[in-house]
């Protein structure tokens, strides 16, 4: 693979700022000079005063760097880290990689009786729904087993027993986006938010307690229902909060009489126990009795009674990248470690990730990556390295699947537009920019591809850190739109840089986070 650097890129990176070219006396800037004028104008926004604003724009066809500011300065990438993880996973595992889940036993079967334990053995599949466990139970019943004289044991030893990533905030633990990572888990929806359960709050009669149910039904969390049913003309006001380190989920607030159920998510404390519980209920529904559940490692000579394979990685990329699913990223890190090093841990997986990124022209010596999703504030990357990855990935055989899985600006279909579905609509960037978003408190990022007005495909990376107040993601959009309008040698300064107003969600003061400062995936509105 040709590793793209370019003399201009190296010079601009060394300077750590945009490359300034002086036009002849009396001449208006044109071409790249005009683009630099406008991008400098965007980045002069006072909201970026005192903050880090790293930006790189390059033309892969010529290796020319059209713009560079703070290119080599490290910053927290937030979910732009998923670009690193997904590309490395495609290299290490391949686009056809599938997760497998087995139901096995070493016990002898005498008629309908299984003399021994039943094992549910997983390899990290984040796409397992309750319906999939129903189908596994149906296969077990079809084998003739009706009575298991032993227990159902969850075998999650494909991965280590560390459920949460390095540097994750303790107060994120109850939320769906920080769910525990395990070789066995359950997703409550087709977004595949594994390790979470859906909390559904339904109104009853005004003045009475509302009804709270979990989907799928499970006993691994206990609901403390403190809700009421309010007057029919009101608005729902419900808070769902799992105790830190515990299994109690406290549901407070009210829902109006006659309204649709209110839904929110909670993470579970033990994803493997959750999977075993859901599967045990499915077995009972299919007439298979067991003597309880627990944990255990399946014997090497165990035979399979049922099994399931996930969709291939190239398909999983869509919900993973479009909806910025943190759990998918972390599972892929551990899967890389298990497949390449025989150890399903973050440390082993990140070794593989680093090795594969190096093969993609990324210099791991200038990065720090401690998880796969970017949820950790300890992650540090540079716009330069993100741009190099985007550039070099274009030569890989899996590139089209990766490119198509990135969010597309201004496209309403959530499995196309993803986290960009409400951004840059009605501009030259709509249905043009394919890019990965990212956000944490004080962090916003956008890196990807855009086709300029002259037909050239450009790669860009924008990483803002340490800003105060509201997120300046509209400045990211303005940069992407200006790139979509870029006309090469014929380009002229716009004279007025358009900073778009995206349709954003509003902060709910009843929650401990500021939703308006985060991308839509954090609060399930995209």
UniProtKB/TrEMBL annotation:
- Organism per entry: Saccharopolyspora elongata
- Name of the gene encoding the protein in the UniProt record: dacB
Alphabetically sorted, this entry's keywords are: Carboxypeptidase, Hydrolase, Protease, Signal
Q: Which family does it belong to?
A: Belongs to the peptidase S13 family.
Q: Name one Pfam family in it.
A: Peptidase_S13
Q: Which molecular function GO terms apply here?
A: serine-type D-Ala-D-Ala carboxypeptidase activity
Q: Where is the signal peptide?
A: 1-22
Q: Spell out the InterPro entries in the cross-references.
A: Beta-lactam/transpept-like, Peptidase_S13
Matching Gene3D superfamilies: D-Ala-D-Ala carboxypeptidase C, peptidase S13 (3.50.80.20), DD-peptidase/beta-lactamase superfamily (3.40.710.10)
Give the EC class as a word: hydrolase
Q: Does the keyword Cell inner membrane apply?
A: no
Name used for this protein in its record: D-alanyl-D-alanine carboxypeptidase/D-alanyl-D-alanine-endopeptidase
EC number(s) of the enzyme?
Answer: 3.4.16.4
Q: Does the keyword Hydrolase apply?
A: yes
Choose any GO biological process term that the UniProt entry carries and state it: proteolysis
